[in-house]
Write a structure and sequence with these properties.
Layout lengths: L8 E4 L3 H13 L5 E4 L9 H4 L1 H4 L16 H12 L2 H4 L4 H7 E3 L19 E3 L7 H12 L16 E4 L14 H10 L5 E4 L2 E9 L2 E9 L8 H10 L2 E2 L1 H6 L6 E2 L18 E5 L7 H5 L2 H13 L11 E7 L3 H4 L3 H12 L8 E6 L13 E5 L7 E3 L10 E3 L9 H16 L4 E4 L18 H5 L1
Parallel strand pairs: 1-2, 2-6, 3-4, 9-10
Antiparallel strand pairs: 5-12, 7-8, 11-14, 11-17, 12-13, 15-16
Length: about 450
């Protein structure tokens, strides 16, 4: 495709938001010329994107296909502060979710759950091709711990329950349902006003006075996609950000916005804490595939080619999970820092869980460092950080602070979360032991010390 030198709208970055904005604008008005510029490669018909176990390990312009819907109150409040109560006037955040969803979960068939899910959007949601026995085992263990099973904990209300985890996967084709396929490629197949430039890194926005008139970009030296990280970098190089910081880099200030680059929060699987357990050799996991077993990989790929709707590659192995909040008794043990956060941030928001955990039927870790066996891990989120440029050059890496563990209020819920996930795993029939290399270190004599078969043999 020949790219025009001038268009009406430029979208920098092909993450979920960028794909939705570019695709919907181009579709809504065929007279508009819209260009999306993305640092990564074109993902069209790329099996490393749409096959689940493979794509989970790939850095692509789409996100992990596990569905975790955002929370009604928190996001409504943030939007209302900025947009003048727009969400309350227009029925909350649900209408935005409805426009994207094509729900084919077993509990989402019309007319059930019609108030929380939709069926005609471009993003397919299902349980994936297979549900492992480990998932059912973990749900039983969660219930034994007092976390009840629910048909749907992605309803923006439930904060203490477990479920068969929903995924952004097309139930019929077995393909990952990504934003680029749903919103970009579908429009480009039928219209000529949407342009995609890949392997290009946007350096800055070009301003004439305080009016944005274009962008400057350079060839990408790698094919990674950085999402919200890139947004901050582009804004600061363009003169939008903390004036004092920009002036130190001799960048002309277009708009003094001190909040640019602050309050960074990444995706759960990027800043999660991983806890690996060994399960029985009879358990079905993705470990042999991830370990590079050629026979297993051949079998799994053939399975997907013949029946993708029920193949193992039509799932990301995240088959079950839960959302929880601490009880009153647990809060008393979590210290003053977290209790202060609880009172101001969680207490009156019954729809907001403190932690979520999922079982992954396989260890998404470096298998060269793991002994033979089958594994699963549970994960939970952490805190906020910041990112800022320290050079005007587009290839210089930014200053980055993930924010992990930089606030004492984080310590107690992380310890509590570790205990909860451990207690769930210990109640699973398939559990065999805990991998000490992927657990916190305790004194060997402590009852909290991880029990590892290989370590005991030594």
């Amino acid at each position: 495709m020949v790219h025009p030198q001038e268009v009406d709208i430029i979208v920098a970055g092909g993450g979920s938001a960028g794909c939705v904005v570019a695709g919907r604008l181009a579709y809504a008005d065929p007279t508009l010329k819209v260009m999306l510029i993305e640092g990564g490669a074109n993902n069209r018909d790329d099996p490393w994107v749409y096959r689940q176990v493979v794509s989970f390990l790939e850095c692509s312009p789409t996100h992990s296909p596990a569905q975790t819907r955002y929370l009604r109150e928190e996001h409504a409040e943030r939007w209302n502060q900025r947009q003048g109560d727009v969400l309350h006037r227009h029925g909350g955040i649900l209408p935005f979710a409805w426009e994207e969803e094509h729900c084919s979960l077993s509990n989402c068939q019309k007319p059930s759950n019609s108030e929380t899910h939709e069926y005609d959007g471009p993003i397919a949601i299902s349980n994936g091709g297979t549900i492992t026995a480990l998932a059912q085992d973990s749900l039983r263990a969660s219930d034994a711990l007092g976390v009840p099973f629910s048909d749907d904990i992605q309803d923006l209300n439930t904060s203490y329950a477990s479920e068969i985890w929903a995924k952004y996967i097309n139930r019929d084709t077995g393909r990952r349902s990504d934003a680029a396929t749903a919103y970009l490629h579908s429009v480009m197949d039928t219209q000529t006003n949407l342009f995609l430039r890949t392997n290009a890194r946007v350096s800055r926005v070009v301003f004439e006075g305080d009016k944005a008139v274009g962008v400057a970009y350079v060839p990408a030296r790698n094919r990674g996609h950085a999402g919200q990280i890139v947004e901050t970098i582009i804004l600061e190089r363009s003169g939008v950000g903390n004036a004092e910081r920009l002036q130190k880099l001799n960048i002309k200030v277009v708009n003094d916005l001190p909040g640019v680059g602050e309050e960074y929060q990444d995706h759960y699987t990027t800043i999660s804490s991983e806890i690996v357990f060994r399960v029985s050799n009879e358990s079905a996991t993705s470990d042999d595939f991830l370990r590079g077993d050629k026979e297993v990989q051949k079998e799994v790929f053939q399975e997907w080619a013949l029946s993708p709707e029920k193949a193992r590659l039509s799932s990301n192995a995240i088959d079950a999970g839960f959302k929880i909040r601490p009880t009153e008794a647990e809060l008393k043990e979590m210290g003053p820092e977290f209790n202060e956060l609880w009172d101001t941030y969680f207490k009156e928001k019954a729809d907001k869980p403190v932690m979520f955990g999922v079982i992954v039927s396989g260890a998404y870790a470096d298998h060269t460092l793991l002994p033979p066996g089958k594994f699963q891990y549970l994960e939970y989120p952490a805190s906020h950080g910041r990112i800022h440029i320290h050079s005007t050059k587009p290839y210089v890496e930014p200053e980055f602070d993930s924010g992990l563990m930089n606030n004492k209020a984080d310590f107690a819920p992380i310890r509590w979360s570790h205990k909860k996930t451990r207690e769930v795993a210990r109640r699973m029939d398939a559990l065999r032991d805990e991998l000490t290399s992927h657990h916190p270190r305790f004194h060997p004599a402590s009852p909290a010390a991880a029990k590892d078969i290989d370590a005991c043999r030594k």
